[in-house]
Amino acid sequence: MKSISLSNNTVQRRIDDIAADIKSQIINKLKLSPFFAISCDESTDITNYAQLIVYVRYISGDIIEEEILYSQSLTAGTKSEDIFNSISDFIKKNDLDWNKLIGLCTDGAPVMIGVRSGLAQKLKEKNPSIVSTHCVIHRQALASKTLPQNLRQILDSAIQIVNYIRSSALNSRLFTLLCEDLDSDHRVLLFHTEVRWLSKGNMLARLYELKEEVILFLEFKEKNIFLQMFKNEQFQCKLAYLADIFDTLNQLNLKLQGQNGTSISNYDHIQGFISKLQLWDQKVSAENLLCFSRLYEAIKNKKLDEDLKIEIITHLQTLVSEFQHYYRDINSESPIWHMTRNPFVVDVLQLPEEVQEEFLEMKADSTMKDDFHLLTLEKFWIKRFLINPKVASLALRILLPFSSTYMCETGFSALVLIKTKQRNRLAVDSDLTITLAKTVPRIDKLVQNVQAQVSH
């Protein structure tokens, strides 16, 4: 192996060939699929170049698959026209059918969903039936930002205390030694980073768990401003509530993350969370705090302060209002949604007239009930598509589109690892495809098409 001489672009050519083979397999599957949907997002890499990542969901056999479609550096700009031209050129170059594109999921930025010149509007000019979706995770993060002024001040103070300890290398080392001496469960506090989905909840939970250690450290440093504030009973109670509520928001966020999520499953999580907020509102009004474990521990057998009670109720009611605002497109009362979940509970007259007869034929099929109980929802409707295409098409148009840009976000995490300060001139389009794709490259086929040469 040491005697083999490699040119400066030999490895890059191999990477490009493997990426092209993966892309070719995905495109062939797309052409066979009756529908497909995309999710796209752009982010800036270490060299300030905008990188566009596009994922695709399609029907392959009896399952729904999601794959990276392509990635591309946007050298000109990140306007809606630039992103649209990139997607349009790819579809045209690979001879894909615009009529099969039924869904677009984005991060909700104006450049993506603008009603006049956004990407979604430009795509609808090509195919008016495309449904545009704002990422459910981004909406959850936006809805969670609301806080009453007093609780906002507590959050800001908590961030200041963490920054005071963590921003100094000496303070950070001393606090770690203190935690080790006290045999604490944790050794460090966590920074708050606004752009990270789970940061706020994790930071507050860790700060509350190490509250005794923080008090001892502040007494040692004689930081009276932070010390008196942190030792205040009302401050600790409000901190406990914030740690509890943001912990539940983190749990919701984690449920919305992951692969193969559908609008139905994710909207179920949202509806369930809104119902829990309404239940907590009623319980706090009755001074039942068992739903907030840290706050219950902080209050113990004492009476809940009336001002804090009003602040918590106000916050819970505001959260309900914000979630209902950001998820106002949840159409759980739609007959088509009900049919997609369970075709046995829908009145045929509620469905569009053009599918009513086919729907009755489907319900009369004796094998349908067995399939519904044995197969997953996606596999069931894919199987019915071969027999009852009109009815199944309505269901698949709900199940197939992305509900979040989670896969794009994982792509940007990979981009950070691939394109580093030491490799800032790297063209990452092919590298990202190989890193993120689930499709296995056909190495044997690639080898057969390459002539063996000692110098390569």
Which features characterize this protein?
single chain; 456 residues; alpha/beta; Nucleotidyltransferase, domain 5; 3 domains; five-stranded mixed sheet; 22 helices; 5 strands; 59% helix
Describe the structure.
59% of the residues lie in helices and 9% in strands. The N and C termini lie close together (11 Å). A five-stranded mixed sheet has the order 3-2-1-4-5. Helix 12 (263-285) runs antiparallel to helix 14. It has three domains: 10-135 and 405-448, ATPase, nucleotide binding domain (Nucleotidyltransferase, domain 5, 2-Layer Sandwich); 142-321, no CATH class; 335-399, no CATH class. The protein has helices spanning 10-32, 80-93, 110-113, 119-126, 136-143, 149-166, 169-181, 199-209, 211-221, 224-231, 233-256, 263-285, 293-299, 306-326, 335-341, 353-364, 366-374, 377-387, 389-399, 406-418, 429-436, 443-448; strands at residues 36-44, 50-60, 63-74, 101-106, 131-134. The protein has 22 helices and five strands. The longest helix is centred in the middle third of the chain and has 24 residues, at 233-256. With 456 residues, the chain is of the alpha/beta class.
